[in-house]
Amino acid sequence: MFYTDFSFGGRYVRNTYALKMSAVWFCCLLITVNASAFEIESERLFESDNQRNELRILSSTDLDYMEPIIRSYQMQYPATSVLYTVASSIELYRAISEEQANYDVVISSAMDLQMKLVNDGLALEHQSSEVDALPAWSRWGNSLFAFTQEPAVLLASKRGMNGLSMPQNRKELIELLRDNPEQFNGKIGTYDIRESGAGYLFATQDSRQSDAFWRLSEVIGSLSPKLYCCSSAMINALHSGEISLAYNVLGSYASAVLDESDDGSIVPLTDYQIFMLRTALLPKRSKQPVLGGTFIDFLADSANRALIDQQVGLPAINGEVFNTHQHYRPIALGPGLLVFLDKIKRKRFIKAWSDALLQP
Q1: pTM exceeds 0.70, yes or no
Q2: 346, burial (CB in 10 Å: exposed 0-12, middle 13-18, buried 19+)
Q3: How far apart are CA 11 and CA 43, in angstroms?
Q4: Which residues, other chains included, contact 153 with Cβ-Cβ below 8 Å and sequence gap of 6+?
Q5: What is the mean pLDDT of residues 22-29?
């Protein structure tokens, strides 16, 4: 017998093969495995002192934000270890929809892709007093449950603004960029929606709110923008001085990193502000759906909202803010999220976005 170690989505896996296996068959198998493996960004095992269970979570949420939640969950379930795996929202979707990866809970900021998993019958139903108590708009049936409501915001570098007034809405942002092209050329960042599930969601929902989205996209596109995978990358680029403005960044991530007294400034545009709901579901192939349900209940429990808000820095579910701020626009859970996932519509939208943002 011989052993071969190979990379599987960032991890190393050891397989055993018989010596008489042909080299050609082995190479073909190796290529197939690597080609199908979804890409993992990071992974960590939170061990328990008296382990009897292991909960497997696949998530697009950065580990730093989820660690306090996992630690607090383990105080209630001390015999449960938690394997927490981070992947991009698109890779996460592929892992569940195509590769039938073995996880017990799936958490993502890409509401549309989560909704598609439910619509395609790849999520289990779950009922409990905790999820039943969620506002109706923050859940879909008994399969998809939101535990945060996070705004998309404009970030600005005070140094990069060089004394210019901060824009208060998209009209003022467009005017700012048009009037100061030399100052902002190559200094604006936004999502690459071809690669980012959350970015694609924000862009499609943005386009539904106002035609200003396309006018703004064309102006940004004329200024050689920089495109990023995720909010954390845009925040880092702003902090380093690589860019001066970042559009549609997750406000929760920005608040946790940027100090308002420092160079970075969060600019909540007042014409409208889109709110993404971070959602969780139980994948159909979960081997421990009851255990997975305990984690979803923990996220949904109103008693844990202070933990999510204050210790984690992710705004917990709170319907009152939408009643008092008319320009806040939560993205609704429902079949409407599937519209832009249609292959033809997605291709057309990305083509229009590319024409606007990727100008020669």
Answers
A1: yes
A2: middle
A3: 9
A4: 248, 249, 250, 251, 254, 266, 267, 268, 269, 273
A5: 39
pLDDT tens track for 286-297? 999 999 999 999
Q: Whose CA is closest to 107, among 276, 301, 302?
A: 276
pLDDT exceeds 70 at position 55 = yes
Tokens, residue 17: 């093969």
Q: How many helices (H) and strands (E) does the chain have?
A: 16, 15
Spatial separation of the C-alpha atoms in residues 318 and 321, rounded to whole Å: 6
Measured in degrees and rounded to the nearest 5, phi and psi for residue 272 equal -165, 155
Specify the higher pLDDT residue, 324 or 80: 80
Average pLDDT of the chain, as a whole number: 87
Give percent of the chain with pLDDT exceeding 70. Answer: 89
Smallest CA-to-CA distance from 148 within 29, 34, 317 is with 317
pLDDT of residue 290: 97
Cα separation of 229 and 250, whole Å? Answer: 12
Report the distance separating Cα 206 and Cα 200, nearest Å. Answer: 10
Predicted local confidence at residue 197, as pLDDT:
85
DSSP letter assigned to residue 317: P
Rounded Cα–Cα distance for residues 272 and 322 (Å):
12
- As beta bridge partners, residue 280 has 107, 145
Residue 294's nearest CA partner among 57, 43, 48, 46 is 57
Question: Which pairs with CB-CB distance under 8 Å and at least 24 residues apart come from 97-103?
Answer: 97/122, 98/36, 99/36, 99/37, 99/38, 100/285, 101/38, 101/58, 101/285, 102/56, 102/285, 102/286, 102/287, 103/56, 103/57, 103/58, 103/283, 103/285, 103/286
